[in-house]
Amino acid sequence: MYFLLFLFIVFIVAPLLAAAVKVWKIRRRMRSFMEDPFGQGGGFPFGAAGATAPKSRQSGRRRKKIARDVGEYVAFTEVEMPASGRGDGASPIMAETERQISDAEWEDIK
Fold first, then answer.
1. Average pLDDT along the chain
2. What is the DSSP letter of 57?
3. Are the C-beta atoms of 46 and 34 separated by less than 8 Å?
């Protein structure tokens, strides 16, 4: 008789309890997601959407995160090129070409 009770608990009650715990965890996770879908924390729970007044925007402009004196300044000057050096058709442009590989042997893979 104890053996049948043991089999009943192991093969019927334990899987039912495990399934119930999984369903409970999934429902809890779904409820927490529905209350805070983007994970921002401080959102309104259901039923309290208009309970508090929205925060007013900060007056004035925000400060910059990086100060103006941080970083490098690169001085540059614009250079005008003569018309013959631009490559607009007045003079041919020389381009270097590389030789193709000729000593490679190809084998067919079967």
1. 76
2. P
3. yes
